[in-house]
Amino acid sequence: MSPGPAAPTPRAPAHAPSRTHPEKATDTMAKRIDVSGLTAFYGGHRAIDDISMSVEPRSVTAFIGPSGCGKSTLLRTLNRMHEVTPGGRVEGKVMLDHEDLYGTSVDPVAVRRTIGMVFQRPNPFPTMSIYDNVAAGLRLNGDFRKKELDGIVEKSLKGANLWNEVKDRLGKPGSGLSGGQQQRLCIARAIAVQPQVLLMDEPCSALDPISTLAIEDLIGELKSRFTIVIVTHNMQQAARVSDRTAFFNLSAVGRPGKLIEIDDTERIFSNPSVQATEDYISGRFG
Amino acid sequence: MSDNALTDRPQVTGPPSAGPSLARRRLPRWTPALVVLVSVGLGVGGGSLAGWESRVQQGLIAALLSVIVTYALTSLVEDSRQARDKVATSVVWVCFAAAVVPLVSLAWTTVSRGAELLDGYFLSHSMGGMTNIEEGGGVYHAFLGTVEQVGLATLMAAPVGLLTAVYLVEYGRGRLAQAVTFFVDVMTGIPSIVAGLFVLAFWNLGLGFGPSGFAGSMALAILMMPVVVRSTEEMLKLVPNELREASLALGVPKWRTVLKVVLPTSMGGIATGVMLAVARIAGETAPVMLLVFGNPLINPNPFSGAQESLPLYVWNQYKLGNAASIDRAWAGALTLIAFVMLLNLLARGIARWKAPKGAGR
Amino acid sequence: MDLSHTSPAPTAPPPTPPDSDPSAVKGRAVHPGDKIFRGLSRGSGITLLVIMAAIAAFLTYRASIALSANSANFLTAFEWNPQGDPPAFGIGILAFGTAVSSVIAMVIAVPVAVGIALFISHYAPRRIAAPLAYVIDLLAAVPSIIYGLWGALFLVPYLDGLTRWLDRFLGWTTLFEMSNPGSPARSIFTVGILLAIMILPIITNVCREVFLQAPKMYEEAALALGATRWEVIRMSVLPFGRSGIISASMLGLGRALGETMAVATVLSPGSVFTWHLLDPGSGTFAQNIAAKFNEADEFGRDALIASGLVLFVITLLVNGAARYIIARRKEYSGADA
């Protein structure tokens, strides 16, 4: 039922994503992330210390660990959102395929466009309609024709499993939706700009179980297109949605968080190699 | 619930196969500083070459230039989005500079001109027995007048304002409270000269009294009341309800709860609010001019006869317009500004010191 | 303790206590102390209302005395001669001067104030922002007579070059034509600039608070979409701040309309109507009262009170509009939360 592809336009601005070779795009869209020696600070406080890990393309990687272990901080360093927090500072490398996100000539704005993010609390722009919310990121990146934009908005809303629920009220404000719908609207908004990686910061923690299930289903569908990293407090959720799981821990409150281990989710939940992981997963702390 | 959207997805958009690079051409970090330097240079140099000697013009030209140059450079080297962003940044900085310049000039002029005459003699003498063009004289009578008038105004306005705030927060329901809230807002916006005219109509023209410090303090009280009500209200609202409930649950009557629990908890903030209000009315000239009239002699009695006050002194000396009186006007202005700033700093000091935990600031 | 900063809750204003709780106790056996205290505080509230009513009543009464003997059209006449025989006075020139100076002040002050507020809330390094906000707070407390003194003795000579330049290049617009180039800039234009500088701190303070209250979560949303700083502000700060900016401007306008001393020191008034904003002349309500008060007899004072009544009504309307907008904003954001 999709209305067919929007025709590639020659007048697309140079910096807007060019619309060529759809098949090729499928192959190259999701990228891998290699983190090495990453340390993040809040002012003088070291929030995470010397983290090295890889995130595989077109898979879901979950970050789990007790409160304050720095999993959300790490997530925010992956699209350079950490540095907008006052006092936020990062050392180390984050490679997106072959490019260092923290390289000197790299534009943080371009990084955030390439690596989308979904937040803990659904945050559709309350002053915009549903349609405008989804189109918000695209409009930043140049002028689209109305028809093009319509097509992308519909695609994205379908991609977020929200189209059928909102197609009759695209002009209504996004704040009128339920929490779960708002969160899916935020996902639609994030995928509308065709990012290569999607970061999700406890996307379900503010939602009821039904909405959570809807989002989890959606994550399962999205991973065929995007590299997904999800931070979650909920270990069942990590077990359900992720392919790989990274466990973080901190030695004491106020100490920096460290990566304890990262492995296939199955292994982490059945036979982890570190005792602390097993203790955490079996609910002995955290 | 979803259809096959995911399988036929990528026709719409998609990065080119190589993926767009995250890097982009950027202007070096020192560009803004350079742009400002060049613009100021051009503004001042070009301005004076063209014979526009006013620094205001040169500044405006420099500001305009820096915005334009920023836009041109960024859109050449980077892209239009970045250019818009950079222009916004430079406009915001220009706004900042444009505001800082006059405000700094105001402060500097007042301090440097005022300091010429401001000394112990100036503070301890009045203008008694002096001709207008004579040098010397002082501000003592004006300072005394201001302290008395502001003191009386505070004595009238603070209790009424405080109790009104208590009424609004602790008791106020229904239409009376709504009306009071609305008219407190309205009162905040009364021009000071209108308050002066009211007291003039009521006290002087209506009841036939002559000018006096007290008449002025009534007008000042009218200006002060809404400010006290607003700030006290804010402070009382910050007192957690649990405190009230705990006290009431112990069987303490409401009025004692308010007096012994609520007010002491917010005393610091209330004192700050009152001080700020005092600082505000201390500088009011218009109503004082209508009602206190001005007097070169020391009149310690605010209830009878014309008095002087600091702002009025500045105005009168300015109006005389000779060199000696202008000097005195500046010195008076510095005295006034020092007095007002002292009250402000004191008030903020109290606020910081006594801030209830969790109230922030 | 969660260091991850994952829940950027909107920075809401301090919660007001719910309407009902503490006074739920009332109604049962009322303590005599309670009765007295309640009566006192209620009485204070009523005192305030009485004062407001008295202001309106006395001003109207005295104004009516003056107006009944006025031989000119009060609203349109330009002259101010209540001592004449018959007395003739009107607020035409005052209304014009007040409106023009306020408009000039707003045109300059509002954009600059919004810029400074954004500078403090979103651009300045934190080390500068906090002290700067503090200093602007203090500047809002500088007495207007000092602005007036500075304006008359410092700003007026400084604006000479600018006014001559405006006359030379924009003289053809009539507005910027000077009848007598080189005369001191004691004009309604200079008054407008001075008023702009005066109300700048007030408008800036309100705007800054409003901008800081814009929920961080929407700024993050915009950032994560790849918005530049300006785009973040346009998408998620200004939409929240719009009504705040309007009401802040109205408050500033209220100040500018009623300002007395800063105008009285700078302006060299006149009673001849002219569109030449750079020429001395014209006047404002408040300035006229200050200037004519000393020479006025009782009837002259009544006439001045009549003009003060007009000013009172105008500022009431402006402030009322500002409050209305603020109240609507509260409703709006309340429904949204």
From TrEMBL, chain A:
A molecular function GO annotation: ATP binding
Gene3D superfamilies named among the record's database cross-references: P-loop containing nucleotide triphosphate hydrolases (3.40.50.300)
Pfam short name (any one): ABC_tran
Domain of life the protein comes from: Bacteria
Stored SUPFAM superfamilies: P-loop containing nucleoside triphosphate hydrolases (SSF52540)
Annotated keywords: ATP-binding, Nucleotide-binding, Translocase, Transport
Stored CDD domains: ABC_PstB_phosphate_transporter
Domain spans labelled ABC transporter: 33-275
InterPro entries membership: AAA+_ATPase, ABC_transporter-like_ATP-bd, ABC_transporter-like_CS, P-loop_NTPase, PstB-like
Biased composition (Pro residues): 1-11
Region of interest: Disordered: 1-27
Protein name: Phosphate import ATP-binding protein PstB
Species this chain originates from: Streptomyces daqingensis
UniProtKB/TrEMBL annotation, chain B:
Amino-acid biosynthesis found in the keyword field: no
Membrane topology category: Multi-pass membrane protein
Domain ABC transmembrane type-1 stretches: 143-347
Transmembrane segments: 33-52, 58-77, 89-108, 150-169, 181-203, 209-229, 261-282, 329-347
Keyword Transmembrane among UniProt keywords: yes
Main subcellular localisation: membrane
Compartments, as annotated in UniProt: Cell membrane
Keyword line: Cell membrane, Membrane, Phosphate transport, Transmembrane, Transmembrane helix, Transport
Entry superkingdom: Bacteria
CDD domains: TM_PBP2
Disordered: annotated span: 1-23
Family that this chain belongs to: Belongs to the binding-protein-dependent transport system permease family. CysTW subfamily.
Function comment: Part of the binding-protein-dependent transport system for phosphate; probably responsible for the translocation of the substrate across the membrane.
NCBIfam families, alphabetized: 3a0107s02c
Name of the protein this chain belongs to: Phosphate transport system permease protein PstA
Automatic annotation (TrEMBL), chain C:
Membrane topology qualifier: Multi-pass membrane protein
Lineage top rank: taxon: Bacteria
Range of residues in the leader sequence: none
Transmembrane segments: 45-69, 89-120, 132-159, 188-207, 256-278, 303-322
Domain ABC transmembrane type-1, chain residue ranges per copy: 95-322
Compartments where found: Cell membrane
Region spans: Disordered: 1-28
InterPro entries assigned to the protein according to its UniProt record, in alphabetical order: MetI-like, MetI-like_sf, Phosphate_PstC, Phosphate_Transport_Permease
Ranges of Pro residues composition bias in the record: 10-20
Predominant place of localization: membrane
Keyword annotations: Cell membrane, Membrane, Phosphate transport, Transmembrane, Transmembrane helix, Transport
Keyword Kinase appears in the UniProt entry: no
Record-stated family: Belongs to the binding-protein-dependent transport system permease family. CysTW subfamily.
PANTHER family, per the entry: PHOSPHATE TRANSPORT SYSTEM PERMEASE PROTEIN PST, PHOSPHATE TRANSPORT SYSTEM PERMEASE PROTEIN PSTC
Role played: Part of the binding-protein-dependent transport system for phosphate; probably responsible for the translocation of the substrate across the membrane.
Name of protein: Phosphate transport system permease protein
